[in-house]
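pls ignore typos typing on phone
zinc ion + seq
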Amino acid sequence: MLKVTLGLRCNVCGGERFLLPTLHEASEDVRCADCSAFKCKNDDLERAMSAVQRQKAAMASVA
Ligand SMILES: [Zn+2]
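k done
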């Protein structure tokens, strides 16, 4: 998992850092880095997932 700041707020603890799945993980879940709450119900998920895709693209270009 990658720990990143997405500019979102966790609904549970208010944290701004989230764990994103890496290229090698099948899961697409975005989880709070602090309390591990799933972020998948959030209205900002689409923005979060676009950040995931950018992260994945960046990682792919490095690899
Ligand atoms: Zn949290």
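The beta strands are 2-5, 17-20, 31-32. The chain has one domain: 2-62. more later
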